[in-house]
Design goal:
The chain is of the alpha/beta class. It is built from nine helices and twelve strands. Strands 1-12-11-10-9-8-6-7-5-2 form a ten-stranded mixed β-sheet, sandwiched between helices. The chain has a two-stranded antiparallel sheet with strand order 3-4. Helix 1 crosses helix 8 and helix 2 packs across helix 8. This is Alpha/beta hydrolase. It comes from Streptomyces niphimycinicus.
Length: 361
């Protein structure tokens, strides 16, 4: 159903909270209201994939409630394919002398802050090395698993690298803010573009046995995800029938168009839980990531309909609202988000088409 969107009071709160700086790139703010920021960086060559041999960085930005209470769900976000270094001439990993890793993982700070304000610990991971040397989706999935393994160690009080490297923007250690406060039985993932296929791969029926011990992924969101099967017609690497997922696509996406809707086609009649999607009219591919958006370095407007495109802030607000509704419903049991997912309560200030694939009994 295509509808012109009305304001939803419970979701407008999230957008209004971030109006003062959510849409500027990475260096904007250390906190928003009750949200705190931390980071960890284990180095450009900290992880070697045991299956492929790909060498990756382990680096992430973390948003979380400033005063966490109880055990909070964890969301891990993974960006897609972009420049790995801040020099277009760089061809190796690590970046050659004179260039630095490109901060694609900081392009979702606005979303991390919004979700953290609603009670999540949100980790946005860097995937530059894979973009420079591999592009493999299994590599993307296994890098997500490596971050989840490290968080499982920390959450369980077993220390590990994060206990030594998690710091706030001033360099102060903050690991104690998370030990005992992260629920690894309620994990969500979100991937953009090629990262979208990466998280679908990680959560698929075929690959869920590769999850770290003690980790339970319960919700997946593919944001403008790529969709092509190899070999053609074999979608087993990304078929998710046992846990809920949502897909966000854009009508003016000049990079992958709306192929992500095919993930719902694949699962129809097979899924044991309900799955959702939304298509945003006038949205493009890059504006979901502030570091891929002009005037940021190398930023591009990829819209196929520039005369009708949404502004970056409006597109990002729509994502905030939909992702908040999805993860609160699936990971926190908040029924208030369900009408957003079904289209009964439209999103503010955009036109959208929603789709629901009911659970097959």
């Amino acid at each position: 159903m295509r509808t012109t969107i009305r304001l939803a009071a419970t979701l407008l709160f999230v957008s209004a909270l971030l109006a003062g700086g959510a849409h500027v790139p990475a260096t904007a703010q250390d906190s928003v209201g009750s949200v705190a920021v931390a980071e960890y960086d284990l180095g450009d060559t900290a992880f070697t994939d045991s299956q492929s041999g790909t060498v990756s960085e382990v680096r992430a930005q973390v948003h979380y409630p400033r005063r966490p209470t109880g055990r909070l769900p964890l969301i891990v976000m993974s960006h897609g394919s972009w420049w790995a270094c801040d020099s277009k001439d760089a061809v190796d990993w690590p970046c050659t002398e004179g260039s630095s890793p490109f901060p694609s993982y900081r392009g979702y700070d606005y979303l991390g802050a919004a979700l953290a304000d609603r009670g999540f610990v949100v980790v946005s991971i860097s995937v530059d090395a894979i973009n420079q040397t591999s592009f493999d989706y299994g590599d993307r999935a296994r890098l997500v698993n490596e971050h989840l393994r490290l968080w499982q160690q920390l959450a369980a009080g077993r220390g590990g690298p994060l206990a030594r490297h998690l710091v706030d923007p001033s360099g102060r250690p903050v690991a104690r803010d998370f030990t005992g406060h992260v629920d690894m039985n309620r994990v969500g993932t979100l991937g953009h573009s090629r990262g979208g296929k990466g998280v679908m791969w990680q959560a698929s029926d075929k690959h869920r046995g590769e999850w770290p011990a003690g980790v339970n992924v319960r919700a997946v969101l593919g944001l403008a995800p790529v969709k092509f099967d190899d070999p053609e017609g074999d979608h087993s690497d990304t078929l998710i029938t046992k846990l809920p997922f949502a897909v966000v696509t854009s009508s003016c996406d000049g990079a992958v168009r709306e192929v992500g809707q095919e993930y719902l086609d694949d699962v129809s009649g097979l899924n044991t839980v309900t799955d959702y999607s939304i298509s945003l009219k006038g949205a493009n591919h890059n504006y979901y990531n502030t570091t891929w958006t002009p005037p940021y370095l190398f930023g591009e407007d990829d819209s196929t309909c520039p005369a009708q495109e949404l502004s970056p802030s409006r597109q990002q607000d729509a994502l905030i609202a939909y992702a908040t509704a999805f993860f609160r419903y699936e990971l926190q049991g908040d029924q208030d988000g369900l009408p957003v997912l079904t289209g009964e309560r439209p999103l503010p200030d955009v036109t959208a088409t929603t789709r629901v694939v009911p659970a097959h009994r």
